[in-house]
Amino acid sequence: MKALEGVKILDMTHVQSGPTCTQLLAWFGADVIKVERPGVGDATRGQLRDIPDVDSLYFTMLNHNKRSVTLNTKADKGKEIFTRLIEECDVMVENFAPGALDRMGFGWDRIQEINPRMIFASVKGFGPGPYADCKVYENVAQCAGGSASTTGHLGDVPLVTGAQIGDSGTGLHLALGIVTALYHRTESGVGQRVECAMQDSVLNLCRVKLRDQQRLQHGPLEEYSQFGEGIAFGEATPRAGNDSGGGQPGRILKCRGWETDPDAYTYFITQAAVWKNICDVIGKPEWKEHPDFAKPVDRLPRLNQVFGAIEDWTMTKTKFEVMAICNPLNIPVGPILSMKEITEDESLRKTGTVVDVAHPERGNYLTVGNPIKLSASPSDVVRSPLLGEHTDEILKDVLGMSDAEITQAKELGAV
Ligand code: CAO
User: Fold this and answer.
1) Is 40 in the pocket of ligand 1 (CB under 6 A)?
2) pTM for the whole thing?
3) How confident is the model over 310-323, as pLDDT tens digits?
4) Which terminus of the chain has a smaller tally of CB atoms within 10 A, N or C?
5) CA 86 – CA 77 distance, rounded (Å)
6) Atom of ligand 1 minimally distant from the CA of 19
7) Was domain 8-205+347-411 assigned CATH 3.40.50.10540?
8) Relative orientation angle of helices 198-205 and 207-215, to the nearest 10 degrees
């Protein structure tokens, strides 16, 4: 039995943030019923297509293990069916633009009237306040949540990151809110509203940068490279390039082949506990006791010199050789892996983190499986549904509708 078996999720999500959340719940065993507009569906089915007329990878990779029902929730018959689905389900998840569900006639008050046990979970771009009515996409959230202003190189433009912390990051937060509300419901017997704003989720993931903002009032941030370079700090947490962000200085360093391979780099952390091992590996044994280098605090103003010497060594090795040499010595390093290398990594296949999926229209494709591993509830990845693939099945199994009722609903354009 899967951990969330028996939990029915009414999935009104689209694009990325909401679908990541419901995909996680589906992997844990919930029955996720994805409601889509008849003939249209989630807009991502047709976005960034690599094969004509076939659901895009954008859609397939965010909607595994779900069932798809088409339903026009603005038509009278569609509203009636939707009301019955709310009665039958435990959780409803949505990430429409602010106000869309109210305009449809299914705001939180109405949902509670229909089903007081319902947990109603929403993603919005911003929480209550001046921007509450705004539509928001990934990069807007990264910018408004403090990520962009603290990402990139000093003196250069703010940068967004490839990690989808606004969308998938918020989906993760929302999923935790939902299972927490389900746990609460087992005792209280009532549902509740779960809300995650993308700005808040990004800020939560950037909390170390808010930490640094406050530290700035008490002096320069000595672990930032700019400290050793004698560059004054301004009023706000600056962009720190590839500095580690933690108490153990680290950087991205060139490895053998960097001139032609854009990913021939390693991350290298000068963890204080293994400083002597680092000195031996890079051929600087005299730095172990040298007053300029022996203690972490001595090294902070000299990080360029320290990492320069380490890079002289890493440039003589491939990124995998650096890993092989440093790992047994407990020196924390990590190769910069390209997406191509990740797709070819056998160990990620073995753990189910990278999975091969068969799809009836596109053939085989690769996806990312559930990164959260439960020992008693392993996740199997099942291909995403075609648009409306389970409409009849859901209307019959979940709502007990007869063939004649389904035919009538179709004639009325409700499904
Ligand atoms: N039947 C009938 N109508 C439906 C329907 C259905 N099954 N499903 C959706 N609709 C309607 C909605 O009711 C809405 O209609 P109205 O505007 O007339 O009320 C309309 O379809 C479109 O909804 P939308 O405004 O949410 O979609 P959009 O493409 O214009 O905006 C987005 C997309 C993402 C910017 C917006 O939904 C948003 O800001 N969401 C919240 C933040 C968020 O999740 N952002 C992440 C996006 S990437 O993950």
Assistant:
1) no
2) 0.96
3) 999 999 999 999 99
4) N
5) 14
6) 49
7) yes
8) 60
